[in-house]
Write a structure and sequence with these properties.
Elements (H helix, E strand, L loop, with lengths): L48 E6 L14 H8 L1 H6 L6 E3 L4 E3 L6 E6 L7 H17 L3 E6 L5 H12 L4 E6 L20 H6 L9 E6 L7 H8 L2 E4 H7 L1 H13 L4 E7 L21 H12 L4 E7 L10 H19 L4
Parallel strand pairs: 1-4, 1-5, 5-10, 6-7, 6-9, 7-8, 9-10
Antiparallel strand pairs: 2-3
């Protein structure tokens, strides 16, 4: 097998007779996630994963730009699509496991229709599309978009999958538990977790958060304890060990729940590794810690849906943030669907 040195993954003959002509380079072709086939969400059949983009950032409180996140993540995912062409799979040197990326059955269902002047209409569209994907048994994976979009996605997943109660694991710098803001109201990207907790499918005692830092309202820890919410700051998680912190969060969110929804805000990662986001906060996860988070999440079969939000690529001319976001998503999918037994 060729090494990761720029050689083509396979030397099959194409229709023109040239060796390697069946291989599509990372920067070529149509920009779906992992260069997978595009399907209408109501035309899914037996795909393991249904990808949906939400190019919406109308509910942010700071810098806009997450509307460009889905396209940037899809573009950066092309490298892993290229690696998926290697015959016989690959060795993941970080995990030590043998993997076959081509074994992941993914359909890119395109972007959810968004209504820039109406977060209510946008939320309705997200909820309906995620519900349609979940109703087929596929694993919904949402590319954001601002973090408000997690609320309708969570509801859509619970309804489409037929779950009465769904736990939430939130990897984030911010708690997003604002009930009412005098400036932003009750439905913005800082209120999504509160909205989930107050919905008929969630509750605060089924929510576990990892990576919080910066500032919250006075008495935040007392509020979290009284509500039954499991909170681990970035410093807590680092002292405990990031993998153990995520396992603890999964246990807390999964207790009494039918399934777990995972939401990842890219600002959980330190801005030195992921500067392309609207509300960066110093002191976050390293890139390696973030990858370990996704490995741990991907290994837990209670996780039934995943989103990655708040990538704002225009603040990162190096494209590092979108590349890391794509890597994090592929890592979770690889751990769940692509490991080779034996």
């Amino acid at each position: 097998m060729a090494g990761d040195d720029g050689d083509t993954p396979q030397d099959g003959e194409g229709t023109d007779g040239e060796a390697g002509s069946t291989v599509e380079l990372a920067y070529a072709g149509i920009g779906t996630f992992l260069k997978t086939p595009q399907r209408e969400v109501n035309a899914l059949s037996d795909e393991q994963v249904a990808v949906l983009g939400v190019p919406y950032d109308g509910a942010v409180s700071n810098r806009p730009g997450a509307r460009y996140g889905p396209a940037a993540i899809r573009r950066e995912s092309g490298w892993w699509a290229y690696l998926g062409g290697y015959k016989g799979g690959l060795t993941n040197l970080q995990t030590g496991r043998e993997v076959d990326l081509s074994a992941i059955s993914v359909a890119d269902c395109g972007d959810v229709p968004v209504f820039p002047m109406s977060h209510e209409k946008t939320a309705g569209a997200i909820r309906a599309h995620v519900a349609a994907a979940a109703s087929t048994g596929a694993f919904p994976m949402l590319l954001g978009g601002d973090h408000y979009c997690t609320y309708p996605s969570f509801r859509g997943y619970a309804e489409g999958a037929g779950h009465d109660r769904v736990g939430l694991v939130q990897i984030d710098a911010h708690s997003d538990t604002v009930g009412e803001s005098a400036v932003f109201g009750s439905e913005f990207h800082g209120s999504s977790t509160n909205l989930i907790a107050e919905s008929d499918r969630g509750s605060f005692d089924s929510i576990a958060q990892v990576g919080l830092r910066g500032y919250e309202s006075p008495g935040f820890f007392e509020f979290a304890e009284e509500a039954g919410m499991d909170v681990q700051t970035a410093r807590d998680a680092r002292e405990l060990g990031i993998e153990e912190a995520v396992r603890r969060a999964l246990e807390a969110a999964g207790e009494g729940a039918d399934s777990i929804y995972v939401t990842v805000d890219i600002d959980a990662v330190d801005p030195s590794a992921a500067p392309g986001t609207g509300t960066p906060v110093p002191g976050g996860l390293t890139a390696d810690e973030a990858l370990r988070v996704m490995e741990t999440l991907g290994a837990d079969e209670r996780v039934g849906a995943l989103d990655l939000m708040e990538v704002a690529p225009n603040y990162d001319p190096t494209e590092t943030t979108a590349r890391l976001a794509a890597s994090l998503l592929v890592t979770a999918l690889e751990r769940r669907f692509a490991e080779v037994e034996g």
